[in-house]
C-alpha cells in the first residue's frame, strides 16, 4: 500500500476529479453558455429609428448546448420565447461541430470518473502495473483536461467563426432579421475552463507524488565497551 503522503495526494486528486465531473455535468445541463443583446434590424429600419429610439428594438438572448430563450423587441414591446437545440434548431447550425462539442464534454467527464477510480484503486492497494499507478492517473487527467479544453475552444469557434448567436437569434424568423450587438460568455462556459484547470492541478499533484523525500534515520551510537562493563 502507498505511504501516507501518496495516499493523501491521491485522495485530494480523487476529490478534485469528482468536482470536475460535477462541474461538467452542471455546465451541460444549464442553458446559459452565452448571453447577448440583439437588435431587430427590420423593425428599426421600417420606422427609421434613431439612437434614442433603438432601445425599443433591442432584445436579449441566452442559450446553451441544448436550449435557451430570447426576448425579442420589434417596437411593440418585449416578447419572450424559449427554444430547444434538438431536434430542429441543430439543423440550422454547424451540426457536426455542435455534436463534437457535446462529445468532447462527455469524454471529459468520463475521463474524470476514470481518474477518480484510479485514485481510489491506488489508495487501497499497491498497483501491479505501471498504468494503474501514478502514470495511469496522469493519463486520465491529461485526457479529461484536454477534452475540456477542446470543448471550450470548439464552442468559441462556433460562436466566432460560424455566427452561432446570430443563427440562433434568427431561427424561425420569417419577417424580422436580428443582428448581434453584444455577446458574453456566461458561467456554464467558464465551468468547463475551471474543469480543465482542475485537471492541470491534478497533473501537478501526480508529479509531486513521485518526489522521493529523504527518510530521516536516527544514527545508532556506537557502544564504548570498557573493562568495567565487562566485569559487570
List keywords for this structure.
alpha+beta, Butyryl-CoA Dehydrogenase, subunit A, domain 3, single chain, elongated, five-stranded antiparallel β-sheet, 53% helix, 7 helices
Structure description:
This protein has a single domain (4-210), classed as Up-down Bundle (Butyryl-CoA Dehydrogenase, subunit A, domain 3). The chain is α+β, with helices and mostly antiparallel strands and 232 residues long. A 5-stranded antiparallel beta sheet has the order 4-3-2-1-5. The protein has 7 helices and 5 strands, in the order αβαβββαααβαα. Mean pLDDT is 87; it is low at 218-223. Helix 1 (4-29) runs antiparallel to helix 3 (95-124), helix 1 (4-29) runs antiparallel to helix 6 and helix 4 (134-161) packs antiparallel against helix 6.
Specify the helix fraction band. 40-55%
CATH top level is Mainly Alpha
* Rg, Cα atoms, Å: 29 Å
Structural class estimated from helices and strands: alpha+beta
Overall morphology: elongated
Unreliable sequence segments:
218-223
CATH domain topology:
Butyryl-CoA Dehydrogenase, subunit A, domain 3
Total number of distinct structural domains:
1
Q: Strand tally, please? A: 5
How does CATH name the architecture? Answer: Up-down Bundle
Instruction: Give the ordered list of helices and strands.
Output: HEHEEEHHHEHH
Biggest sheet overview: 5 strands, antiparallel
Strand content is 15-25%
Q: Please tally the helical runs, counting DSSP H or I stretches of 4 or more residues.
A: 7
Strand arrangement in the largest pleated sheet: 4-3-2-1-5
Mean pLDDT: 87
Family: Belongs to the clarin family.
InterPro entries: Clarin
Keywords: Membrane, Transmembrane, Transmembrane helix
Main location: membrane
